[in-house]
Specification:
- By secondary structure, the chain is an all-beta fold.
- It is built from no helices and 9 strands.
- It has strands spanning 11-12, 18-19, 25-27, 31-32, 39-40, 45-51, 57-62, 65-71, 75-77.
- The protein is globular.
- It starts with 10 loop residues before the first strand and ends with a strand.
- The mean pLDDT is 88.
């Protein structure tokens, strides 16, 4: 019998820590927002993240920012 293995996507932050749904993360570098003149500042907390299927992006909302998608390489777990 063949068993179907779940394709679990592991998302890691800049330090290699595994991120999970609902975590709080902190931005480690100032990031420009595409299509806008605003900037997400270093130290901004993004709460209650959800993981994307590609294993590279997370989305969430934080201090003055709603519904933003960020690359995990610019985040660290809080």
């Amino acid at each position: 019998m063949d068993e179907d293995e779940d394709d679990v996507v592991v998302v890691r932050d800049s330090n290699g820590t595994i991120l999970s749904k609902g975590d709080t993360v902190v931005v480690i570098k100032d990031l420009k927002v595409k299509g806008s003149s605003s900037v997400v500042k270093r130290g901004t907390k993004v709460k209650n993240i959800s993981l994307e299927d590609d294993g590279e992006h997370v989305s969430g909302s934080g201090d003055g920012v709603k519904g933003i998608a960020l690359k995990a390489e610019f985040l660290k777990k809080a």
